[in-house]
Amino acid sequence: MEIAKSNIVQSNAGRDRGKLFCVMSVEGEYLLLADGKSRRVESPKRKKRRHVLFVAADDTRLSTKIKGEEKVTNSELRRALAEYRGEVHPDQEG
Fold it and tell me: Which residue intervals of 1-94 are DSSP H helices?
């Protein structure tokens, strides 16, 4: 599957191996990746396509914001990636 803007990917090379990222932009063979913590939206990581693995095609509100060139906050990005990791949000009840 072709990796596109707003997809969730996992790094499989480099010091960030195993981490989940959201694709913020596609530039030829390079992807701009952010996770909202170590790589913030303001300064995304530039990584080659062959160094990441496709995880999921995100179809949430965040995906719509990224595709529509709207401002995305780091906390929104962290929250979305936590759902794919299966983490429980401390600010949610239940």
Answer: 61-67, 74-85
- Cα–chain center distance at 91: 21
pLDDT digits (tens, 9 = 90+) for 18-60: 999 999 999 999 999 999 999 999 999 999 999 999 998 877 8
Instruction: Find how far residue 90's CA is from the centre of its chain.
Output: 21
Give how far Cα 8 sits from Cα of 3, 34, 38, 71, Å: 9, 10, 16, 18
CA angle 79, 68, 80 (to 5 degrees): 10
CA distance 94 to 91: 10
Predicted TM-score (pTM) of this structure: 0.85
Length of the chain: 94
Radius of gyration of the chain (CA): 13
Q: List all residues 6 or more positions away from 64 whose beta carbon is below 8 Å from its beta carbon.
A: 70
Q: Residue 4's Cα: distance from chain center in Å?
A: 11
